[in-house]
Amino acid sequence: MRPLRILIGADTFPPDVNGAARFAERLASGLAGRGHDVHVVAPSPDATAHREPTRPGADGVRVHRVRSHRYPLHETFRVCLPWQASPATAALVADLAPDVVHVQAHFVVGRGTAVAASRAGVPLVATNHFMPENLFGHARVPAALQQAAARWAWRDLARVFSRASVVTAPTERAAGLLADAAGIDGVLPISCGIDSARYAGGVESSTPTVLFVGRLDEEKRVDELLRAVAALPTGLGARLEIVGDGSRRAAWTALAGELGLAERVMFHGFVDETTLVEAYRRCTVFAMPGIAELQSLVTLEAMSAGKPVVAADAMALPHLVRPGRNGWLYTPGDVEGLAAALGALLADPATRARMGAASREIVAGHALDATLDRFEEVYARAAGRVEMPVRAA
What we know:
Layout lengths: L4 E5 L9 H15 L3 E7 L6 E2 L10 E5 L2 E2 L7 E2 L2 H15 L3 E4 L4 H13 L3 E4 L5 H7 L6 H16 L4 E4 L2 H11 L5 E2 L19 E5 L8 H9 L8 E5 L5 H10 L6 E5 L3 H10 L2 E4 L8 H8 L4 E4 L14 E4 L4 H12 L2 H15 L4 H15 L11
Parallel strand pairs: 1-2, 1-7, 2-4, 7-8, 8-9, 9-10, 11-12, 11-14, 12-13, 14-15, 15-16
Antiparallel strand pairs: 3-4, 5-6
Helix pairs in contact: 1-13, 2-3, 7-11, 10-12
């Protein structure tokens, strides 16, 4: 296929640390590595609009930053204003004249890019990484209003994504959610993909260690994980490592102290990629108690490192965790069930080895190269380069 000029519109992108940002970066870098001319438009990490120099190791991806502002209710969250982002994204679409635009969200930057592409007649692809639960903590939405707010949010997403000729989501469950909640049919499930080789290797720590990686926000349910670790048999000597930051870090640090875990829990905050890979390699078991995971890249990363996983039986996590094969699922809120699953694995090296090997087998079906293949097919179809059915991945 002749190389394409692709513009990716993202409302979160590194240095942001979250699954959507990491996916957008891997997608852009992977496509550029295949010879495509890839541009990304995303919020600036500071108050200025600018084009970044090409980053080392980024395979020539060019990142265009839209002026952003610090969100007053969240320490690390930044937002763009529509009256600044809309003209900026429209000017970029006009200047680049891309063959295809791929938006990663329906928020301010994604919305502006989608509208600009639609008006310019540029083929538009949209991928959803959003669930209302991801934003309720940031927006401080009262519990009594959350159902109404969720309905409004899904309608708003549908209005933006209706401009796209192709809509994708990371899993079949995520695609079904778009159909049920937003009325969008024909959504293609395409895995976010993973370069599993970079996580392989390493030596398990001699101290039984449970690892969690993710934002420390309400929907991640890390408080349940802390209570489960506190309920583990004392003789196991288990510790918990938590990588990530967010609005609940202070509260959950205090909870660890109240539960008598201050010496057994390490809150690492944000870490670089090398440190993160080391954490995956040395942990004994990976835990994901989050209830709003449309795929969970961090779970894919832990599986790539050959780790058994204990995860909430919620959203897309059952796509990754096969009970009895590579880990266990538990009912969200069932702290005793979570503790029992963790304790059984921490005490059983043979089962851990078997399940870790199964994790590597399962994650092979999420190879990044296959994801890039699928998106190249999507772009070719959207741009009218070929007439072919697009396969799910």
